[in-house]
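Can't attach files on this board, so I'm pasting raw text. These are the components:
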Amino acid sequence: MATYFEIELDKLKSVIQKIGVLAEIQVGEAIKAVLSEPISEGKEVKKNEHKIDKLDIKIDEICQSIFALQQPVASDLRFIMSAMQISNEMERIGDLSMSIIKKTKSIKDKHDLITTFSIADVARQVELIMTKTNECFLTRDENTIGEIFVMNKSIKNKCDDAIHAIINEMKVNSKVVVSGTNLVMVLKHLERISEHSTNIAEYVYFMINAKIIKHEKFEDLNTEN
Amino acid sequence: MKDIKIHVNDLSLYYGEKKALKEISMQIPANKVTALIGPSGCGKSTFLRCINRMNDLIPSVRITGEMLVEGIDIYDKNVDVVNIRKKIGMVFQKSNPFPKSIYENIAYGPKINGLKDKTQLDEIVEVSLRQAAIWDEVKDRLGDSALGLSGGQQQRLCIARTLAVSPDIILMDEPASALDPISTSKIEELVHQLKEQYTIIIVTHNMQQAARTSDHTAFFYMGELIEMGKTNTIFTKPLQKQTEDYITGRFG
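---
Top answer:
Structure tokens for the assembled complex are below.
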């Protein structure tokens, strides 16, 4: 029979899964917006954002109560520490998705720009990294964590290249300055989502291995082991 | 090694036929607090009592292996057990002051050791009570019976009584388990202060107490030492699954 403490931990795990699914939906909507696909009504997106905020607070409350009443140690302690951080990252991912949806509305000739600067590819990768992030929390699979690190690097490079190309275009064509600026911001947001996903993967790594790998390169970790 | 106070090599203890401690080997560092944890009957208190030969008092007990305190095997035939116990003091779960005055409780040990000088005895009483963080509470009533003190005060008095004979090592067997949270925190604070001068080994069922007070933790299970390491490591990243299961409450 599960103890009261184990029931609390399961509850926490399920709330994190919920916030993860919602964040993934929001990222999906943001990517659709970037790729000019029809997105859910604004109402739905806002409702999800509201739900994410509420879950974020709920996770803090559950963690606070576990810390105060159960004095967790070892793997339990790492799980609860990670839960608080993961919730925070998910909430940021939700916010960034909302910002992307808003920004894309003010980009003129979006379809052409997206094609010109190969943004569809990076957008799809961001969608995928988010899926992988939720997957790695559930499965605690280290290979998936590795994949997330590699994808994040690739997303960052592609965003840098696209931003560089957009700036060069803006230098010679003043008509694209407004849209180009908005697109740069969208790319920066996509890059941030990828970063937050990677942070979550780092917390999952900490949960599994009791090693804090923030600010470290994944390649270095592999050579260390 | 200089900073290791006690070397335990392959120590086994039998109660008649029953093997209660199984080939324990560990090193207990000097001037640190080492906590012994584990479920009831795991052998931690039995092990603690081996360190000052308290198990000698049980007729059916047989011990093999070595218990080297500062390089000397305390189970050697030539070793005087009284000297060992002078050097290795012990505080028990239930405070056990003598039915005498507060002053006499502390002066008792030094007097038995032959000290008669009143000034020196006064000094030892004051220093010991100060070290045990109880001086301010009892300085004006040293002639009163020790039995009139509260449970927490009695326990600190017993610690002071232990300190009065200048031991090197202090063994504590669940020293705060019968105390309220305020007295408990006073005892824990005291343990922190005392480790500068003494090597302390503490048995506790309270996992958080082990985490708060000790530098090293040893986990015992069914007479075996499962794991010993820095307390910070044991409570964040234990190496053995059994340790993890025990400290996270998933045992059995």
